[in-house]
Design brief:
The structure is a homodimer. Chain A is of the alpha+beta class. Chain A is built from six helices and eight strands, in the order ββαββααββαββαα. Chain A is globular, with a radius of gyration of 18 Å. At the A-B interface, β7, α5 and α6 of A face α2 and α3 of B. Chain A binds a DNA duplex through loops.
DNA sequence: TGGTATCCCATAAGAGCCCATGATTTGAAC
DNA sequence: GTTCAAATCATGGGCTCTTATGGGATACCA
């Protein structure tokens, strides 16, 4: 199972190619021929993962007893909207401009590891998003020490 | 479980390397290949911990019934913003300049042990922060003798 | 036929690895 | 308590390899 950690910012070149960070390619494994990318449902970003992970997700979802409308929404947004993009020989991909334009990616891409998946952002939008999230966390009085306390069973597991 | 105590100030060299204090590396254990670093939510500093601790935290939080927005804020700020940095052969790390610049770290780093985690500060900002904290502790009438009393069950565990 | 995808190659920067040295700490001997 | 040697730690530098970046040629497709 691929685990994506840390964040990287890489350039998009004149041919529309961008290097997938070496540690992400390592996480994907030597057999990986590419990645899967689709619009994020929550953010102005793309979500990415390994091909195998999307297939596993698909199988898992079929076993759930989801309402048909919910299943149909997932089918349309994630599976219908996903694009499989192959690596070139140097570990680069060319992302469809329909996806990158939709989320404001122009000349650089921020790869944000989210363990099982990763996100792709325009770096400026990511910075704004992170500052907003930090402000919201502070407003909710979330701190690292409280997170650790909650994880340890203190605070009745609440935050 | 790593326990980080004391504070140290080390230099950043021309190649951007800084020695992780030997006692912190000892706390991390011989198997440790690096550390994890992310922006502090509360302070103009970075938070750091062992890779294992962050993974444990992640697993623990998934088991809690946190409100989805709270979970997502934590996911974005701490997990999404964390960077795994490896040790070199001499116990040094190279911190991403995106993190060090965000908190004003330039030529020296103060490592501040916080038992399960540690903080990374620009030394001048740390000095200011500590003075502020001392003033606040005095205003709350906190003293070492009262801390010891509270820890011993006196004062009904209150401070 | 033009545009683009694919494949191949080259290069610079920096990450990673290895080694050395001076400063500081620690412990033993007196 | 002092001195000295050994061990440890922080600091510095050099070399090699990997990675990200850039470009050209060819094949394919609309």
């Amino acid at each position: 199972m691929a685990v994506f950690l840390s964040s990287f910012v890489n350039k998009i070149d004149k041919k529309g190619r961008v290097s997938v960070p070496a540690s992400f390619r390592a996480a994907l494994g030597q057999d990986a021929t590419g990645i899967v990318v689709f619009r994020s449902l929550q953010y102005e970003a793309l979500d990415g993962c390994s091909i195998a992970h999307l297939e596993l997700l698909s199988e898992s979802l079929e076993k759930l007893d989801l309402p048909p409308e919910t299943f149909e929404l997932i089918e349309t947004t994630i599976f219908g909207g996903s694009v499989q993009v192959p690596f070139d020989g140097e570990g680069r991909v060319v992302l469809p401009s329909s996806l990158t334009e939709a989320v404001g990616i122009t000349s650089e891409i921020a790869f944000v590891g989210r363990r099982k998946t990763f996100q792709l952002w325009d770096p400026a939008k990511l910075a704004t998003h992170e500052e907003t999230a930090r402000g919201q966390a502070r407003a909710k009085d979330i701190s690292l020490s409280k997170i650790i306390a909650a994880a340890s069973g203190k605070l009745d597991g609440r935050l």
